[in-house]
Amino acid sequence: MTEKKGLSALEVLKNGPVIPVIVIRNPDHAVPLAQALLAGGIRVLEITLRSDAALESISRIRSEVPDALVGAGTVLSGQDLQAVAKAGGYFAISPGLTPNLLATARQESIPLIPGVASASELMLALEAGLTELKFFPAQAAGGVEMLKSFNSPFPQVTFCPTGGITLQNYKEYLSLKNVACVGGSWLVPADKIEQREWSAITRLAQEAVAGAAGTF
Ligand code: 3PG
């Protein structure tokens, strides 16, 4: 197995530029899904902790698809973060931040990329020493204009906007200087996973990666 422990949050985001936000209900789907995304040029995989299959899926991808950089999304608590690290995830992404989550992140070996949607939340993340952040829910919380506004007071912050990102708007986000990647579920439709349409998922990944070239 390729050893990649110790990736920083910035390294995770820079391996984007598009990160699929994945819900896996059957752990048998994990490895072929990861392989389909890799075949389409996507390496960073966010498996959300929204199903009982999530942690096992992370473990399987970590051991069977060594080129993937698999981590978790929807990490809501310190316990979630510890479970992700134990399962072999390279990173943890949360929709928001809490004092408990930030305190646990200081003790864990994998980076936490917490979500923020306001200047005050962003400043709490900075106080915890975190400068790579998810902007969530991106479209609903002000979209591209909000990120442009954040750049003047907070030029040290790099974002991964997620929430409402689509094939139609993702390039606009990627063109911003404080955006390293975008996250979205459009890359991994639930019906295509359920029906094991792996080549269709590879095509969605290829389309997104090709469209992103030159935008950032
Ligand atoms: C997330 O789960 O992090 C986002 O809600 C994904 O948003 P999307 O489904 O709008 O891409």
TrEMBL record:
Question: Which SUPFAM superfamilies is this protein grouped with?
Answer: Aldolase
Quote the pathway field: Carbohydrate acid metabolism; 2-dehydro-3-deoxy-D-gluconate degradation; D-glyceraldehyde 3-phosphate and pyruvate from 2-dehydro-3-deoxy-D-gluconate: step 2/2
Cite the Pfam families for this sequence.
Answer: Aldolase
- Could you confirm whether the keyword Lyase appears in this record? yes
Reactions catalysed according to its record: 2-dehydro-3-deoxy-6-phospho-D-gluconate = D-glyceraldehyde 3-phosphate + pyruvate
Q: What is its EC number?
A: 4.1.2.14
Q: Which PROSITE patterns match?
A: ALDOLASE_KDPG_KHG_1, ALDOLASE_KDPG_KHG_2
InterPro entries reported for this sequence = Aldlse_KDPG_KHG, Aldolase_TIM, KDPG/KHG_AS_1, KDPG/KHG_AS_2
Q: Which family does it belong to?
A: Belongs to the KHG/KDPG aldolase family.
PANTHER family registered for this protein in UniProt: 2-DEHYDRO-3-DEOXY-6-PHOSPHOGALACTONATE ALDOLASE-RELATED, 2-KETO-3-DEOXY-6-PHOSPHOGLUCONATE ALDOLASE
In terms of NCBIfam families, this protein maps to: eda, PRK05718.1
Q: What is this protein called?
A: 2-dehydro-3-deoxy-phosphogluconate aldolase
| Source organism (scientific name) | Candidatus Electrothrix aarhusensis
